[in-house]
Every structure is written in C-alpha cells, then in structure tokens.
Design goal:
This protein is α/β, with parallel strands linked by helices and 290 residues long. It has two domains: 161 residues, NAD(P)-binding Rossmann-like Domain (Rossmann fold); 118 residues, N-(1-d-carboxylethyl)-l-norvaline Dehydrogenase, domain 2 (Orthogonal Bundle), CATH 1.10.1040.10. The protein contains 13 helices and nine strands. Strands 1, 2, 3, 4, 5, 6, 7, 8 and 9 form a nine-stranded mixed sheet that branches. α8 packs across α12, α9 packs antiparallel against α10 and α11 runs antiparallel to α12. Bound molecules: NADP nicotinamide-adenine-dinucleotide phosphate (NAP). NADP nicotinamide-adenine-dinucleotide phosphate binds next to α1 and α4.
C-alpha cells in the first residue's frame, strides 16, 4: 500500500490519521509541535521532520491545519510542501480556509506539476474518531478518486464539488449557520434559566419540537453544566464566522444574524475562552451588557 502523508495532528488531524493507521494505511506524520507525533508513532506511524520531507516520501499528503495562515505557511515557508511537490504527487488540504487561500495553494502546487484537492470536513472530534466525517472535496478529480479509499475510512460521505473554492465555500456556509444556531441556542438557555425554568426539562421539551437537532441534543447538557471541553475550539468557529462574513461582503449580502453571532464569539475570545469548545459562547452570552 502507498504511504500517505499527514500534516497537522490537532484534535481533528490526530483522530483522522489514527483512523488511517487503524485501517491498515501506512502513514508518515508531521506536526509543528513534534511531540504530538508520539502517540501516532505508538500506533505505527512514521515521523518526518518537515512538511517537505513528508511530501518527498509520500504519493499524496493530507493537511489538517488551524487556519489560512497555518495552511499557507506549511506550503510556502522554508522546508514546506512546495519544496518537494512535483508531477505524480498530490496535496489534499482538509483544513477550513477561505476560497482565496485554497486557490493560492492550488496554483502553487499546480505550477510545480503536483495535483491539488481541497477537502474540508463537516463533523467534529467524535465523528472524526468514528470515521463519520462529511468530506467536501473540490479540485483535481483524479486525486479525489485516488484518495477515495482514505476518505472512505475518515468519512461517511465524500462529495466532489467541482473546481477549487467550492469545497471551502460549502464548508464556510455550513459553519456560518452552525455558529448562528449555537449563539441563538445560548441565548435561549440563558433566558430559560433566568426565567426560572428547569433547564433539563427545557432541553427535553426542545428535543421533541420541530427545531430539535443533533447539535442541541449533544451540546445542551454540557452547556447547562458550564462544561466546555474542546471538540471544536471556539477560536476556529470565530475564524469560520469571519471568513463566511467576508464571503458575504464579497457577494454584497446582508447577514445581520451571522454578524451578531460573530460578535458573541469575539467577545468569548476576549474573555479567554478561545481554546474551549465553541459552545462556550454560552458564557459570553450570560454576561450582562451593562
Ligand atoms: P487544533 O486542535 O487547534 O489543531 C490545529 C493544528 O494546526 C495543530 O496541528 C497545530 O500545530 C497546527 N498549526 C497551527 N498553526 C500552525 C502553523 N503556523 N504552522 C504549522 N502548523 C500549525 O484544530 P482542529 O480542531 O484539529 O481543527 C483543524 C482544522 O479543521 C481547522 O481549520 C478547523 O476549523 C477544522 N475543523 C475542525 C473541526 C473540529 O470540530 N475540531 C471540525 C471540522 C473542521 P501545533 O500542535 O504545533 O499547535
């Protein structure tokens, strides 16, 4: 079996690369903080010291990095992906970034003869661990087909969405509604609580109504306990709101709901909650404005 490269072993990258190993893929990993590779090595991964060294060794390399600046730095900086990418090799960026960042990376990879696919995912820590992600791929169709066995292990459904940018935009639009819903949900929990309602009963009622959804069901109980162990870090949700709002600006679309939700996430970051789960926006909503 061909060796697959994997760059970025955060919450998502660790779970995704672990799944590949568990299903018999040979994986070479790299992470900026190298010690985060140790657990993967215990499960059979090899380590390379730079992104370039990973690309040199592997037919195709997957990246799962925090944001546009991380995604660009791993490709363009010294010892980065561009130094070794060439004809016959592929690069698949699964990070959530904006379409411009993705296009910049795509052009650079293509100019060296490599093939590029963006493939951001929907689904958090648990779906990543369970191989249940939704994969939103766009770019070179042949690379998509080559990566299908790996996508099959990491996800429950891969989509091929056409040209580069369509995956990024789909992901941002999905996360925009998620961030708006989470903020609205937080407001409702605060209002129910301050109105003297039993929060557990309130969640049971909500779960039987037409607006019931898996996110409210999963996050509600921990939010009322004030427990926010990070599955999807709040700072990344705010990044996604910011990038979705920029897309709205570009298209001239008024999005007051998303803009208000973005403000709540910014406030949460200023309260030091950026590394907690995005549901910690509840704590920012709890704080009175005056
Ligand atoms: P995370 O736990 O914060 O991990 C971020 C990763 O990016 C780490 O490996 C980190 O390396 C690396 N990184 C950050 N800045 C870097 C830089 N300048 N150069 C090189 N590497 C850098 O994030 P995550 O939750 O795994 O999310 C990763 C991506 O997936 C994000 O784009 C996020 O929006 C998206 N996503 C997340 C979820 C989720 O539920 N968590 C779901 C869907 C999509 P270090 O270890 O050295 O810090």
């Amino acid at each position: 079996m061909e060796e697959i490269g994997f760059l970025g072993l955060g919450i998502m990258g660790k779970a995704m690369s672990m799944n590949l190993l568990r299903h018999g893929f040979k994986v070479t990993v790299w992470n900026r903080t190298l010690s985060r590779c140790d657990e993967l090595v215990e499960h059979g991964a090899s380590v390379a010291e730079t992104p370039a060294a990973v690309v040199k060794k592997c037919k195709y390399t997957i990246a799962m990095l925090s944001d546009p600046s991380a995604a660009l730095s791993v490709v363009f900086d010294k010892d980065g992906v561009l130094e070794q990418i060439c004809s016959g090799k592929g690069y698949i960026d699964m990070s959530t970034v904006d379409a411009d960042t993705s296009l910049k990376i795509s052009e650079a990879i293509t100019s060296k003869g490599g093939s590029f696919l963006e493939a951001p995912v929907s689904g958090s820590k648990k779906p990543a661990e369970d191989g249940q992600l939704v994969i939103l791929a766009a770019g070179v169709k042949a690379l998509y087909e080559e990566a299908l066995p790996a996508f099959g292990v990491m996800g429950k459904k891969p989509f091929f969405l056409g040209h580069v940018g369509n995956g990024a935009k789909t992901k941002l639009v999905v996360n925009m509604i998620m961030g708006s819903m989470m903020t609205a949900f937080s407001e409702v929990l605060v209002l129910a609580d301050r109105s003297g309602l039993n929060p557990h009963t309130f969640l049971d009622v909500l779960d039987l109504c037409g607006i019931a959804n898996p996110m409210f069901r999963m996050k509600g109980p921990t939010m009322i306990q004030g427990s926010y162990s990070p599955a999807f870090p709040l700072k990344h949700q705010q990044k996604d709101m910011r990038l979705a709002l920029a897309l709205g600006d570009e298209k001239g679309i008024s999005m007051p709901v998303a803009a208000a939700a973005n403000e709540a996430f910014k406030k949460a970051i200023s309260m030091g909650l950026g590394d907690l789960d995005f549901s910690a926006v509840h704590e920012a909503v709890k704080v009175p404005e005056h």
